[in-house]
Amino acid sequence: MDKQANCARQSCSEWVFRDVPSDITIEVHGGSFSLHKFPLVSRSGRIRKLVAEHRDSDISRIELLTLPGDAESFEQAAQFCYGVNFEITASNVAQLCCVSDYLEMTEEYSKNNLCSRAEEYLESIVCKNLETCVQVLQQCESLLPLADELRIVSRCIDAIASKACVEQIASSFSRLEYSSSGRLHMSKQTTKGEGDWWIADLSGLRIDLYQRVIAAMKCRGVRPESIGASLMSYAQKELIKKSNQSTQPTGSDHESRVVETIVSLLPVEKFAVPLTFLFGLLRSAVMLDCTVASRLDLERRIGSQLDVATLDDLLIPSSRNAGDTLFDVDTVERILVNFSQQDDSELDDMDDDSLFESDTLSSPSQSALFKVSKLVDNYLAEIAPDANLKLNKFIAVAETLPAHARTIHDGLYRAIDLYLKAHQGLADEDKRRVCKLVDFQKLSHEAGAHAAQNERLPLQSIVQVLYSEQLRLRNALFCSYPDEDPKPMRQSWRISSGALSAAMSPRDNYASLRRENRELKLELARLRMRLNDLEKEHVCMKRDMEKSTSWKFMASFSRAIGRLKIFTHSYYKGSTSPLKPSHKTESKLTQ
Questions:
Q1: What is each CA distance from 126 to 100, 321, 363, in whole angstroms?
Q2: 3-state secondary structure of 185
Q3: Nearest in space to 89 (alpha carbons), one of 121, 131, 124, 117
């Protein structure tokens, strides 16, 4: 400031009247200017009032300590009062507007005064060009709040938003072309950043002014992709490039404010910014201890597109005290909860037909669940060796996804095995708790063979693995020989199961018997269903028999009477023995 004041004093002697001695000294921001009252009073209403107030004492010194801008700005205003020509540009128009307003250099005191000249340049030149508007906004950073009161900031912001919208519309029209059939369509070949050349210019603004510009662009309808690209460019400039320049608390406060502001400006559209950028903001928010609202907003956005995330994205370093986990597991757990809740809400909004279709493997929601389940299993395997990772936290992360998300449990089994290997001091009850997460029937053959010989697993889990392998072998044999009776196979399996249970501990033997009891109940239920079917068939057959009983009785009765008439007829012919007719009949048959 002193250097600028000295330069202003030196240049002042070049244009001030040398043949007339100065009669007033103006002190501005540590610098003093020896000037004359008449030129200043003729243009500045403020100086005229100060001189009039001290007319009796003949004032010769005035201090303008609250003058906006610097000594150079006052020098240009003084040059205007002396009639010295100078150029109004984008780099000084904001200062001239504020200084002329402070000095009251309006039309009331002189025609075509500095206020009207600066306003004319602002409206006709600055607001017609986006680059000059950005340049003027940068000059307004040191002139607030007066620049806001004079509406310099708001006019530049509105001009920037409207010009950016017009640029995008023009670029869209330039992509229109006619097809071979004569129809007008949009060309798919686009130049990267076409219509968004203003992004680099906005990156030089201060965060509060940048926030107002982006908010105005949203209201004007600028594309969300362009908004996202601008946010990424600004974050790269303010966070990455300046991270090594400032290690003071004020620097971290500025960075945390930048992160919170960028989060509040993120478009609501799902893929307006890449997922890696959201994870980068989340890492910065964790390290800078930003507000809870900003972190929760980022976690919700990430959870809505978690199916395209990678393992490196989820490995968020923890910034807490010593003794905590290496990675921030709590944040990842909340992200997974957001993903699961989003999936549940989408299913709740569907009708029955769409819900039935979403259960198929080709539905997007189901495929997203499969991808996220693999991602979670890999994440669990990555954090499992951490000695500070508590069992409850490990189980909570594994249980965030629904049961139908995993079709194969190999990844989950691998993560649990790594956890048991790193935490060998777990109690048997804790081992059984964590092993309950695995459905051993969903293990591949290789994983099942490994689990059957894994000494780190509790005995109950090993028995479940063997039981699942026996079920798999039985099903394979039954599929190979479908015509054979499955009862002997089932009987042999029970015998082997009984032999196995005899070698178990009482608790494991009881668990095995409970499983066999459940299977017997299922077989009994099947037999009951078959018995109900047979009873229905029996009732139908009995009803048919009752309808045909009367006809069969009359037919048998008539046949019996016919036989009786034959016997009486042969008797009345005078045969001496009733055996004779029968004897004749036998002789006829022999013949």
A1: 18, 52, 54
A2: strand
A3: 121
- Predicted local confidence at residue 488, as pLDDT: 44
What sign has the CA pseudo-torsion 125, 129, 131, 135?
A: positive
3-state secondary structure (DSSP) of residue 61: strand
Q: Quick one: tokens of 477?
A: 């044999």
> Are residues 86 and 79 in contact, defined by beta-carbon separation less than 8 angstroms?
yes
Please tell me the distance from the alpha carbon of residue 94 to that of residue 125, in angstroms, as a whole number: 13
Q: Please check whether residue 98 is in contact with residue 146, taking contact to mean a CB–CB distance below 8 angstroms.
A: yes
Q: What value does the mean pLDDT take over residues 437-464?
A: 89
Per-residue pLDDT tens over the stretch 405-428: 899 999 999 999 999 999 998 999
Average pLDDT, rounded, for the chain = 78
List, in sequence order, every beta strand (DSSP E) within 127-204.
Answer: 176-178, 184-186
- Beta-carbon count within 10 A of 358 CB: 16
Distance of CA 359 to CAs 353, 367, 408, 466, 561, Å?
10, 10, 17, 31, 73
Whether residue 454 contacts residue 460, with contact meaning beta carbons closer than 8 Å, is answered with: no
Q: Which of 266, 198, 203, 288 is nearest to 238 (CA)?
A: 203
Q: Could you tell me if residue 431 is left (phi over 0), alpha (psi between -120 and 50 degrees) or otherwise beta?
A: alpha
What does the pLDDT read at residue 179?
53
What angle, rounded to 10 degrees, do the helices at 71-82 and 93-102 form? 70
Nearest to 325 by CA among 411, 396, 393, 413: 393
Per-residue tokens: 438: 């695995």
> DSSP letters of 351-416?
-HHHHHHHTSTTSHHHHHHHHHHHHHHHHHHHHTT-TT--HHHHHHHHTSS-GGG-S--HHHHHHH
pLDDT in tens, 191-219: 444 557 788 889 999 999 999 999 999 99
SS3 label, residue 213: helix
**130-185 pLDDT, tens digit each:** 999 999 999 999 999 999 999 999 999 999 999 988 888 766 555 545 455 555 44
100: nearest Cα among 114, 86, 120: 114
Q: Are 44 and 7 in contact (CB under 8 A)?
A: no
Return the SS3 of 222.
coil
Q: What is the pTM of this model?
A: 0.71
Q: Hey, what are 309's tokens?
A: 């995330």
CA 463 to the chain's CA centroid: 41
Structure tokens, 513: 């018997």
pLDDT above 70: residue 466: yes
Q: Is the dihedral of CA 376, 377, 381, 386 positive or negative?
A: positive
Residue 486 pLDDT greater than 50, yes or no: no
Alpha-carbon distance values, 433 to 329, 395, 461, 466 (Å): 20, 9, 10, 19
Query: Which pair of tokens denotes residue 247?
Result: 């290690």
Give backbone dihedrals phi and psi of 92, rounded to 5 degrees, phi first: -130, 0
Would you state the pLDDT for residue 364? 46
In sequence order, what are the residues at sequence separation of 6 or more whose Cβ sits closer than 8 angstroms to the Cβ of residue 137?
Answer: 153, 156, 157, 160, 205, 209, 213
